[in-house]
Design a protein that fits this description.
4 helices, disordered N terminus, about 45% helix, about 120 residues, globular, 6-stranded antiparallel β-sheet, alpha+beta
């Protein structure tokens, strides 16, 4: 029985995120130091796979301000969540298996909007 290595399986899961993300202006694909895929805007992190052990497998992590994050979690707790590790950052976790394509685009658009000021500071 052939098994796909976990890191490659996660990268394949990220392909849809990448496709949607790259359709947004100024978004670029990159790879973290550990080989996991992510999206950036102007060199600043926008979205990626949650790699901390506290996150569930196949979880997307994106920028979110605290109010939006709380609203997302309250509105759809089966899709959006946080762990103690991620709580201290302006991020939200999303279960990729539960994200509708329209929701994914909205989520990535929100993260892009929040990343733009950080990317401008890098220039």
């Amino acid at each position: 029985m052939n098994r796909i290595p976990a890191s490659r399986a996660l990268a394949n899961t990220f392909e849809i995120v990448k496709m949607v993300g790259l359709s947004l202006r100024d978004v670029e694909s990159a790879t973290r130091y550990d080989g996991s895929p992510l999206l950036k805007v102007g060199g600043a992190f926008m979205a990626g796979l949650a790699m901390h052990p506290s996150a569930e497998p196949a979880t997307l992590v994106v920028r979110a301000d605290v109010e939006e994050r709380e609203w997302l979690i309250e509105d759809a707790p089966e899709t959006y969540y946080l762990t103690d590790y991620y709580r201290k950052y302006p991020l939200v976790l999303a279960r990729l298996s539960r994200l509708h394509p329209d929701s994914l685009r909205d989520l990535l658009s929100m993260s892009r909007r929040l990343t733009l000021p950080k990317s401008r500071r890098r220039k």
